[in-house]
Write a structure and sequence with these properties.
Elements (H helix, E strand, L loop, with lengths): L2 E4 L4 E6 L2 E6 L2 E7 L5 E4 L4 E3 L1 H9 L3 E5 L5 E5 L7 H10 L3 H27 L6 H18 L10 H27 L18 H23 L18 H7 L3 H21 L2 E2 L2 E2 L1 H16 L1 E4 L2 E4 H16 L14
Parallel strand pairs: 1-5, 2-6, 5-7
Antiparallel strand pairs: 2-3, 3-4, 7-8, 9-10, 11-12
Helix pairs in contact: 3-4, 3-5, 3-8, 4-5, 6-7, 6-8, 6-9, 6-10, 8-9
């Protein structure tokens, strides 16, 4: 997927034939064929675009996404699609039967297994240079594996009660996982532990993580729309008018292999530089650029899953379609996306 990322104040997007023209202060900076891009990401205030660009984006099925200064998806413009009424009816019904409970556990399982595998990967890469750290990371990964096994013992059939049990297991696993990430980052930057957006973190690592999750959520949301699912009807996450629950469900499979991995690498390679990229509790323009480019590059990386080597962004789309197939009972199971270490 090729993206046009607009990350600067005072930029104007116009159209010339079937080409998108990007101008700043009246001077052309980029000219690109609409047929060569799949997404336009608007990541700054003060961006203007013409209605002709919107029409061109719709003509070429270009996703146009807008994110806040914290990386939160604010909205998108996508071409009109059918409503897939039967699929959505099945999606709502699945929230009240075994399908919803099964999916909720699979999303959580993928998240925890990917936490384990990322720690093991980080340990393997440090086996020769930092053997003590590698050993400690392997120990932590085994602790998380023991915690993950608790999911198999949860036998509830009520989705609301099941979520409570799963959240308890997730929290226990996350506590150990973020200890491991802190150990990896210790020599590069201070990481106080995981803090979400509503905690209003001020440290660079959490600010970058939250921004990265927002960019990933935008990608997940698009794939769920393409699969004709209702992004607000979730399984692991309860329905909420303020949050697309199914987007939050599917993102659990991709947090560690896409965002966590990218952000850890950023701070290992650019810790001093990233410290200067904070603008209060947000990323500066340069900080946004580094995080967006890192996440987008990772989404383009090819990974083998279910015997198919494809870019991660393609796997995301295929996972959304597999959720649809499972909900419609076209297949008997759903395998979550887990990256080998």
């Amino acid at each position: 997927m090729r993206r046009l990322i607009v990350n600067d104040y005072g930029v104007f997007l116009g159209r010339k034939g079937d080409r998108i023209i990007v101008k700043k202060h009246g001077e052309k900076t980029v000219e690109i064929s609409a047929g060569n891009i799949s997404q336009i990401l608007l990541a700054s205030k003060g961006i203007a675009l013409s209605s002709a660009v919107l029409r061109l984006a719709l003509k070429y099925n270009i996703d146009l996404a807008i994110v806040s200064g914290y990386g939160k998806p604010l909205g998108r413009v996508i071409s009109w699609r059918g409503s897939a009424v039967q699929l959505k009816k099945n999606q709502y019904d699945a929230q009240s039967d075994w399908r919803g409970c099964f999916l909720a556990k699979q999303f959580a399982r993928a998240k925890i297994l990917n936490q384990i595998n990322l720690l093991k990967s980080l340990a393997k890469n440090r086996k020769l240079t930092k053997p003590d750290l590698a050993k400690e990371l392997f120990v932590l990964s085994e602790q998380i594996l023991s915690i993950c096994k608790k999911l198999d013992k949860i036998a509830r059939t009520d989705l609301d009660k099941l979520r409570i049990d799963i959240r308890s297991v997730e929290a226990e696993a996350a506590n150990v996982y973020w200890q491991g990430i802190a150990l990896v980052l210790k020599d590069f930057i201070y990481f106080p532990g995981r803090k979400k957006k509503f905690d209003i973190p001020k440290d660079p690592v959490n600010v970058c993580l939250n921004y990265g999750y927002g960019i990933l959520a935008s990608e997940i949301w698009l794939s769920i729309e393409y699969a004709s699912l209702d992004p607000f009807a979730g399984f692991l996450h309860a329905d909420s008018p303020r949050r697309p629950a199914l987007v939050m469900d599917l993102i659990e499979e991709f947090r560690q292999p896409v965002v966590d991995r990218s952000i850890v690498n950023i701070f290992i390679n650019n810790s001093k530089r990233m410290q200067s990229f904070l603008d209060g509790d947000k990323l500066s323009k340069d900080g946004r650029k580094v995080v967006i480019e890192s996440i987008c590059n990772r989404l383009n990386d090819q990974i083998t899953f279910q015997n198919r080597r494809l870019p991660i962004h393609t796997h995301i789309l295929l996972q959304a379609r597999r959720i649809s197939d499972f909900i419609l009972k076209r297949v008997s199971t759903y395998d979550p996306f887990v990256v080998k270490w």
